[in-house]
Structure formats: C-alpha cells, structure tokens
From TrEMBL:
It is an enzyme of class 3 (hydrolase). It comes from Acinetobacter defluvii. Its cofactor is Zn(2+). HAMAP family: Protease_BepA. Zn(2+) binds at H135, H139, E201. It is found in: Periplasm. This is Putative beta-barrel assembly-enhancing protease. Binds 1 zinc ion per subunit. Residues 1-20 form the signal peptide.
Length: 481
C-alpha cells in the first residue's frame, strides 16, 4: 500500500487509451492561456532535466519490456509532434512504448514520454490518446517536476527520477520490483507532495485540452476518458494504474467536462481506420489479442484485422497463414505502408530475400523520409550483404536521434559486413556500445568502447573520437538513480 501511495508523488504519470491518426486538419483556436514558467522556476534547470530524462530513458529501456517497432513509434510520433510543436520543449529524448496490458503512461522532464500497449488496445479513438499525450506534455512544459522539487529540499538531483523508474517498475506483475528504488526519505514526503499533485493535475488538464484543440483534436475526449475510467473502476476489485497515479474525484471530472464544453466544436474527421490499424497491430505485437479475436475481425472484412492477423501468425512462425491474410488485404489496399512492412517480413521469414527487396524498395523510394520503411530496407540490404548501402540509409536517422537503439543495432550489423575496412571491428564495437548504452547496459557499453579504444590505438582520429565518447559515458554512469 505504501508503494501505491508513493506512486501519487509523481504527478507525472497519466493512464489513458490510444489511437493514431495520420491526417492533420488545423483549426483556428482561442488564444492559449498557458503560464510562462521560465527557466528560473524550480531547483532543476533545463540542462539538468535533460540529463535526468536521458538517465531515466536508459533505465526504462534496461528494466522494462519495451516494444522496439519503428512503424508503431512513427505513428505515435506523428501525433506527439503535433502537440510538441506548440511548446518550447525542442527535440524530445524520445517516446517509448511499454509492453504492458495495464492502462498507463508517464512523462519525464527533458522530453521522455512513455505509453503502455494496454493504453492503446483499450482506447476507442485517437482523440483519447491525444488527451493522454497532451496532459503529459503539459506536465513537462509547466515543469511540474522541477517545481515540485521545492518540496524535496535536500534530496539529490536524481531522487525523483528514482521514484519515476520505481513507479514504472511497480506496474509489472511483481509490484515489489520497484520497492527498492522507492525506499528512503522520499516516502516521508508523500503527504506534502500530494497537495502539489492535485493542483498540477488540474493545470495539466486545462493546458492539455488547449494543446489538443490547437492540434485539431476534441478536448471532450479527455473528459470522456475520465468518465469511462470512473465507470469501469466501479466494476473492478482493484484500482488500475490510472487511479493510483492520477486520483480523480467528482469535482475534477466535472471541471474537465465544463472546460471541454467551452471549446468550439471540433469538425469530425474520419480517421477511424488508421486508429484501428494501430490498435490491432499493437495488440498483435504485444500478445494482447488471440486468433479467435482476430478471426472475428477478418470475418467482418476488417483491413486492420487482416494485417493484425498476418502479424500475429508471422510471430507464430506460420508464414503460410500470414501470407493468406495478406493476399486478402492486398485486394483491399496493397499500398499501405504497414502492408508492405509485414509482407517484407513474411518474405524474410521464408528466406525469399529478392521478393522482400522488391516489396520494400518500391515503397521506400517513394517515402525515403519514412524511418520504418528505411529500417526495413536496411534489414533487407544486410541480408543481401550490402552493408555500406544499409549504413548510408540508417546514418541519416541516427545522426538526428542519438537514442535510436534500433538504428545503432542496424549499424552494428551493417558494419560487420565491411570485411575490407581496417576499422571494421572498431566500428562494430562503437555501434554496439551505443546500442548497449541507450539500452541501459552502461557497464557493457563502456567495456565495448574500451576494447575499441585499444584496437584503434594507431588511428589518432578514431582514438580521439572514442576517447571523447568514452569519457561522456563514464561520467554519465556515475549518476545513480
């Protein structure tokens, strides 16, 4: 019970339902009334917040079951970016998808946001998910974490980051996993922090709705979610994560509904199919559906159901059945990005490399800016022993996002094919170190770089490059949560 109470200290974790929409219809909105928090408020400045966010990112990657799926990540980033574009957050650390059936999400200063697959599979429409994201982004833009530090005088910079990781771990089946991180003087501060949390929740509701409206989404969906969860909990013998981290009362729900009703009506946009694709594909990759459920969708001629059923059987190793679903889906829409990605995977599973290449290259050439298509093409190129071509493709994305674990893993595989490069092993170790580091395995990442450092001793430029990166990793490892 104490652990559940400590979860309330966050004031930064929201639970909700999800969906994904690709079309954006801008709407003229009222002037935003968002308090200007500024860099001087709170005890943690923005640079330190970024450091904490990156540390927590690595811990989450290391300790939680993260879904590494470029297509899903890209879908959520499409929505995420529409909200972020209204803020001064800048480049976020990242958005991670946690393989967890519970309905939950959380945010960390510096721009790290996470959502559970259970939030996706439980949602009715995209706007509900946007409500969660907008609420979480409001927590970060208003620097609630830093401002709350005033109630934690004398604590280390990473004390609350430890609470965040512990809260995330507590959502696992074994709630005691996070208890070790939670022990200490933070627990004694719970009562003091709760008063901040209630006010911050209301502020995040209000500002989150403004963000939603300006991005073209319906603020009423946030109020809808509150009421749906309230009705659902009356039938449960336990409280979901949403209730633990975001305690609601009748007053707050009423305020949310009244506030939402004050916005002009948002025009209806027909993006349900895009949401259904995200929802059922998420269910398939996270194991949160069954063949029986998918068969019902297939009988209803659901395109989303067909692709999800194909992915589900692909993961079972039944390539023939996976292909049978794709054959039906092809007649409905052969040009959708997810269709091409799943078809490529089915061919790769059958070792039909040329078929896989022709499937993905035709789509990637049209959309070279698409990360999911590019990474799938790179995977095929690696299977074709074309490491240099794969490296060139992936580097464009990794150079923009240093936390891209999948990108680093692809670079490691691609560089290993470059047999004639005297720096081949050094590059493999460098890329492996980055994948290990951002995956939270800091100790092994440093070992990989030390090995690369020894092998590069005769190459001054490479040695200097490794030295700089190694020092950064060693310094960051000293930061303890």
């Amino acid at each position: 019970m104490a652990l559940k109470k400590i979860l309330l200290t966050l004031g930064l974790s929201l639970s909700c339902t999800v969906n994904a929409m690709e079309d954006f219809y801008p709407i003229h909105s009222p002037q935003l009334e968002i308090p200007d928090i500024g860099g001087g408020v709170g005890l943690i400045d923005q640079q330190k917040e970024k450091m904490i966010g990156e540390k927590v990112y690595r811990e989450v990657q290391h300790q939680m079951p993260i879904v590494q799926n470029p297509w899903l990540e890209d879908q959520f980033m499409l929505v995420f970016s529409k909200i972020l574009s209204q803020t001064q957050i800048g480049s976020p650390i990242g958005l991670v998808i946690v393989k967890d059936p519970q309905i939950n999400a959380f945010a960390v200063p510096g721009g790290l946001f996470a959502l559970n697959t259970g939030m996706v599979t439980s949602s009715k429409n995209m706007d509900e998910v946007v409500g969660v994201m907008a609420h979480e982004i409001a927590h970060v833009t208003q620097r609630h974490y830093s401002r709350s530090q005033e109630a934690f005088k004398g604590q280390g910079l990473l004390a609350l980051a430890g609470i965040i990781v512990g809260a995330a771990l507590a959502s696992k089946a074994d709630g005691d996993v996070g208890s070790a991180v939670m022990l200490g003087s933070q627990a004694a501060l719970w009562d003091k922090q709760l008063s901040y949390s209630r006010n911050q929740e209301r502020e995040a509701d209000r500002i989150g709705m403004q963000f939603m409206y300006n991005a073209g989404y319906n603020p009423e969906s946030m109020a809808d979610f509150f009421e749906t969860m309230h009705r659902a909990t009356s039938r449960l013998s336990f409280l979901p994560d949403f209730w633990l981290t975001h305690p609601l009362n009748t007053e707050r729900m009423s305020e949310a509904r009244l506030r939402a009703n004050q916005f002009p009506r948002v025009p209806f946009n027909n993006n349900q199919q895009e949401f259904d694709l995200v929802k059922w594909y998420t269910a398939a990759v996270s194991g949160q559906t069954s063949q029986q459920q998918l068969d019902i969708l297939v009988k209803q001629n659901s395109y989303a159901g067909l692709l999800a059923a194909s992915e589900y059987n692909l993961r079972q190793g039944d390539y023939v059945q996976a292909q049978s679903y794709l054959n039906i889906a092809r007649k409905m829409n052969p040009d959708y990005t997810l269709f091409n990605i799943i078809q490529t995977d089915v061919y790769l599973g059958q070792n039909k490399i040329e078929d896989a290449y022709q499937t993905i290259i035709s789509k990637q050439r049209i959309m070279p800016e698409n990360r999911a298509l590019t990474y799938k093409l790179a995977e095929v190129l690696i299977r074709q022993n074309k490491g240099k071509d794969a490296e060139k493709l992936v580097n464009r994305f990794v150079n923009k996002n240093k936390t891209d674990i999948q990108g680093w893993q692809l670079l490691q595989q691609a560089s290993n094919l470059d047999q004639n490069n005297p720096m081949r092993t050094v590059n493999v170790l460098r890329y492996r170190a980055e994948a290990q580091y951002w995956g939270g395995d800091e100790e092994d990442a440093i070992k990989s770089l030390l090995h690369a450092q020894r092998l590069a001793k005769d190459n001054n430029a490479m040695r200097a490059r490794i030295d700089i990166r190694l020092k950064t990793m060693q310094d960051d490892r000293k930061l303890r949560i």
